[in-house]
Amino acid sequence: MAVDLRDGVYIAATGVPLTLWWDGAVAAGGALRLVDQTRLPETYTILTCATLDAVVEAIRTLRVRGAPAIGVAAAYGLALGARAALAEPCPGAEDALATLATAAGVLRAARPTAVNLAWALERLLSRAEAHLRNGATVATLPQALLSEAHTIAAEDAAACRAMGALGAELIADGDVLLTHCNAGSLATAGMGTALAPIFTAHQQGKRLRVYVDETRPVLQGARLTAWELARAGVPHTLITDNMAAHFMRCGGIRGVFVGADRITANGDVANKIGTYGLAVLARAHEIPLYVVAPRSTVDLALADGSAIPIEERSPDEVRRVGGALIAPAETPVANPAFDVTPSDLVTAIVTESGIARAPYGASLAALRGKLSMA
Amino acid sequence: MAVDLRDGVYIAATGVPLTLWWDGAVAAGGALRLVDQTRLPETYTILTCATLDAVVEAIRTLRVRGAPAIGVAAAYGLALGARAALAEPCPGAEDALATLATAAGVLRAARPTAVNLAWALERLLSRAEAHLRNGATVATLPQALLSEAHTIAAEDAAACRAMGALGAELIADGDVLLTHCNAGSLATAGMGTALAPIFTAHQQGKRLRVYVDETRPVLQGARLTAWELARAGVPHTLITDNMAAHFMRCGGIRGVFVGADRITANGDVANKIGTYGLAVLARAHEIPLYVVAPRSTVDLALADGSAIPIEERSPDEVRRVGGALIAPAETPVANPAFDVTPSDLVTAIVTESGIARAPYGASLAALRGKLSMA
User: Fold this and answer.
1) Is the peptide bond preceding residue A217 cis, with omega within 30 degrees of 0?
2) pLDDT digits (tens, 9 = 90+) for A253-302
3) Measured between CA atoms, how close is B55 to chain A, in angstroms?
C-alpha cells in the first residue's frame, strides 16, 4: 500500500499518525485536520475542517469515529464556530453564550448517542461562562475555547500513554495477543486505549504477535487496526471473527485486549459486538480478558449492564460489504452495535489511573473518584 | 429479490430448488443441470453441463459446492465423459476402462481434497468394471454409468430425508435455532444435512426461528442459507458470526445445528471454521449442539480430530469481499477453512441411520457398520 504520510502528524512512540490535530498553518488562524477514516485503508486522506459545519459533517459521516476522538473533534468544532460567530463587531456576552449553545446543539445532533461528544461540549460551554463571568471580553472567547480544546486533546493523549504504560505490565515477552475492533490511534487523540499497551510493550522491546479480529459488520479491525499495527511494526495476523476460538485453542493466545463504550458500577462492560463472545471463549481457554478504557468511560450511575440500551444499527451494514450485496436484499437482519460482558468474565480494567480488579464496585469507584478530584 | 425459478426443479417438501439434477430433455440424450452458486443470491442461473469438461469447470470454479453435491456432480460428469468417448465405433473393453480412468483423474483434480468426489468416482469405475466383467457391451456402459449416478443422487436425497426426520425429533414447537455455513439443498442432492431437520420440523408445523451466521470468509450463510430459508418460508434472521454469543445469551437460542466435513472414530467433528467456537459458546450457555451428516462422513480410520489436516485457503478470501479490499493489501492473514470440535462438546450426531451419542466410539461404529452391510 503506497500511502504518503508526509503530511500527517505522527506519534513518535508508535509511528502511527494521529487521527486529528490542530494545524495553525492552514486556513485563517488555524483549522482542525483529520484523517478521513472512511477512506482507509485504501487511501490516506487528510481533511481540513476550518468551520463548524465542516466538523459536523466529518462527525456525522464517520470520517472521525471512536468516542474519545469524537469528543476532541467536537471541542475544536465549537472553537471554530466561536471564531466565526464572535468576530468583530463582537456581540454581547449573553448573545455570545446563546450562539455557542446553538452551535453545541448542532454538533451534538451529529452523533446523538456519543457520550464523549456531549461531555466535551459541556466542558467548553462551562469554560465560556467562567471566562465571561470573570470579566474577560467576548473578543478573547474564541482563543479561550481553542485553548480548552487543546487541553482536552492533550489530556486524552496523556490518558492513552498512561493506559499504555499500565497495560504493558500485563504483557510478557513472546506473548500472542488478540484484539477486537479498533481501539487505537484512530479512535483517540493519542495512541489509543486497548492498543496502547500493545504499542507500549512493543516499544519496550517485548516480542509480540497480535491476532486482529476483522470485526464485522463495519470491519474496523481489518480496515483500521491492521493498518495501525502495520504502521507501528507490530507483527499481526488478520482473522475473521469466527476464527478466534480456533486460535485460542491452537494459536497460543495469552491475552485478549479490548476497549469499552461504557462500564457500569459493577464492572459490566459494553463494547463492540463480539466482545462478549470473546470473553466467554477466553474464560473457556483460561486466557485473561483485559478491558482498557479511560476513567470517563465508567458510568457509576448505572448499577449493571442490564441498564445499558443496545443500539440497533442499519440492516444494510450486515447485508452489504463495500456496497456489494452479500445476502438476499430483503433478508431479515439483527445488527446490535455492541454487547454487554458481565464483570465476572473480565480479568482487569485498565484505566489511566490504575488497574481495577474484582470486586469492581469498590475498585472502580476509587479510580473514578480520582477524576472528580482532578 | 426477483428470481425466476420456473426453470428449476423443486423439492416438494421445502420449496427449495435442487442444486443439480439430470435433465433428459436438454442436449442430445440429456445433461446435468445445476444452479450457479457463485451468482447467488443476486442471480438464479441454471447451467447446462452436457460434457465432461463443463462439469469439471463447474466443480473447479465452485459453481457447485458441498461435499455430497460435488460427489453427485462428478458421477454425472463421468457418465457424460463415457457417453462422448464410448460412442460408435466403440473401443474395446480395456480401452474403455482406460478412458474412464483418465476422465476420473481429470474430475478428481478439479477439487483434489473433496472426499465425496473421489468416493463417487470410485463407485462408478467399479460399476464399469463389473458391467464389462459380466459380459455387457461397451455400447451399454454409458447408460449403466448414468444409472449409477442416478442411484448416488437418489441415495443422497434419501439420506437427507432420513436425517431430516430423525433430526426434527430434536426440535420442539417454538424453538429458536442457530445454524452456521450452508448445509442445505445447495450442498447436497436433496434437502440438505443440518438444514434438513429444520425444513422437516417446519413442514410438521412446528413454529421456528433460525439465526443464520453469515459465515465469513466465504459467506455461505448469508448468500446461500438465508436464500434457502426464505424459499422454504422458515422465519430467519441473518447475523454476523460474532453476534452468536449475544443471541445465545439474549435471543433464546435452544439448539445449534451444523453439518460436518469429517467425523473421526471418537466423534470429533471437522466442519466449517467457526463451528468450534459455536460449540464452546453453546456449552457455556447450556444449549445443545447437533451435528447432522451422512454416515459416509464418518472416517473410522482416524482415531481423533488431531489427525485431521486443516486446509489453509487463500488470504484474499479474508482480505477481500466481493472483489473489494477490506484490509491493507499486504496484511498477513490466517485462513483455515475448518476447525475441529472435540466430541465432548457435541450433544449428538444425526445420521441417516440413527442418532449417535456419547460415548461416540461404539455408537458411530455401529451406525457406520450399517453402511458396509448395505
Assistant:
1) yes
2) 999 999 998 899 999 999 999 999 999 999 999 999 999 999 878 888 88
3) 26
